[in-house]
Design a protein that fits this description.
The chain is an alpha+beta fold and 114 residues long. The chain has one domain: GSPII I/J protein-like (Pantoate--beta-alanine Ligase, Chain: A,domain 2, 2-Layer Sandwich), CATH 3.30.1300.30. The chain has a 4-stranded antiparallel beta sheet with strand order 1-2-3-4, covered by helices on one side. It is elongated and about 75 Å long.
């Protein structure tokens, strides 16, 4: 009887740990998906605005997690510019990062006024 109780207790602990690990993985995936959607939204907004408004940065909160984002221009080549958005957040003591890029038409260089 005692052996059966110990085996049952160990089995319950193993089941609880596997459920917890599954929930943790699901939460990580959910946070990463949110960060990707946030980066895409920020890139779309930056592409619609004047390039002089860059760099942009800010913070968004969801479910107790602070997501820090920054959009900036990267080098342009061949008539195309690159916008880069990096989103950072901390989860369980680890810093996580998602980076997305978007190509946009490069703005023509205007000569400086005299």
């Amino acid at each position: 009887m005692l052996v059966a109780a110990v085996v049952l207790a160990v089995g319950l602990v193993m089941v609880a740990e596997s459920i917890s690990a599954g929930l943790t993985a699901a939460a990580r995936t959910e946070r990463r998906l949110f960060a990707g959607r946030l980066a895409a939204d920020r890139l779309n907004r930056a592409a619609a605005e004047a390039p002089a408004a860059l760099p942009q940065e800010g913070q968004t909160h969801l479910a107790g997690v602070a997501y820090h984002w920054k959009v900036q221009q990267a080098r342009s080549q061949g008539g195309l510019g690159r916008l880069v958005c990096t989103v950072r957040w901390k989860s369980r003591g680890w810093q996580r990062t998602v980076t997305l890029e978007r190509l946009v038409p490069a703005q023509p260089q205007r000569p400086a006024a005299p």
